[in-house]
Amino acid sequence: MKPIIQNISKIISLTPEEETLFLSKIETKYFKAKTILLSSGEICKEGYFVNSGLLRSFNINDNIVEHVLSFACEGWWIGDMYSLLSQKRGNLFIEVLEDSEVEVLSKENQEQLYLEIPKLERFFRILIENSLIANQERLMDNLSLTAEERFEKFCKKHPTLVQKVPQKQIASFIGVTPEFFSKMKSKMLRK
Amino acid sequence: MKPIIQNISKIISLTPEEETLFLSKIETKYFKAKTILLSSGEICKEGYFVNSGLLRSFNINDNIVEHVLSFACEGWWIGDMYSLLSQKRGNLFIEVLEDSEVEVLSKENQEQLYLEIPKLERFFRILIENSLIANQERLMDNLSLTAEERFEKFCKKHPTLVQKVPQKQIASFIGVTPEFFSKMKSKMLRK
DNA sequence: AAAGTCACTTAATGTAGGTTAAGAAATTAT
DNA sequence: ATAATTTCTTAACCTACATTAAGTGACTTT
């Protein structure tokens, strides 16, 4: 069974016909590392489900500083929610960090699927609820924890990512500069 | 027409029967300022839609420092998403800041409504999508803007709230101490 | 109206994390 | 393999914001 179907089946159950219909609306694509799937200023027309590999979304501040909004590895969805929904120009980049196999679901097909398989409203509602919860927690963590504590939490929560992701991007995700992150890390090791 | 029905009608259309059914599942309540609707450590059993007045959700760090997650005034929904969804103990408080009139939707009734009016899946999906987008933006702002810039953005986005909410809670929302906020504000006025 | 609490201000001092810069190590490209 | 680019480290110095503390005014409570 395709990972994306497994992913959906964890939350709602699809009939074989619905599965087929769903699969007809997505497209499997392969991307090389460093491919930019979406740039700031563009309108996001599709969402991505990662079969294998690793993507990230980030923005760039004052044309200099990158801030990572999210990573997505196997079994995760990624997109620019703001732009995808509003169909206005967003300010996120979506980049492939490792050679990846990805299911592409266009905005258009997603809307059609909502009509053809109303159950999918439920699936995506729950998917987004979970995303919101994670985001709220991250927000509160940024307000109340030190960089060290945030890093520890990140390690516990995403042990695989810590191995795969370049260190400067973990720094960006938890909200510190690469220089400070490096200093902090070596300080933590010394304990 | 009840504000909560207006709120829903902006996104989906309900038949008169569906409206009646929906209304039968919510309860209008009146709360005095300072009422605590939910405490940290409790399981959140209901969501709130504000007809009038003002609520907030926040957590408390190390039994000392409060961090405001969100405000909700007229026309806004509020709840502890994490606890509401997982039915586990959350760490948020929900407090009434001004005497308020509120529509209460229990978790139980909400689940029933999803079955009886599947369109509501769509409504809440979109509601939560918007909430996620706002959260993501706030997260990125916290990573990339100064306190001053965050405050300016807050003022533009929520001009009514700036008038109503105690200053120390705006400070908490944008992520600084009340002391620093006070200093910052007087510095901004001097310009 | 007095007393107490709470919200806000101001100021001195402290610190987590930023900036700049330069070199070392690791990847990538030729 | 070598050069080129990128990532990581270290260190000196800097700043946005936190902490502590003390004082003022406003709102509650009795």
TrEMBL record, chains A, B:
SUPFAM superfamilies linked: cAMP-binding domain-like (SSF51206)
Name of a matching Pfam family: cNMP_binding
Signal peptide: none
InterPro entries according to UniProt: cNMP-bd_dom, cNMP-bd_dom_sf, RmlC-like_jellyroll
Domain Cyclic nucleotide-binding: 10-89
Protein name, per record: Catabolite gene activator protein
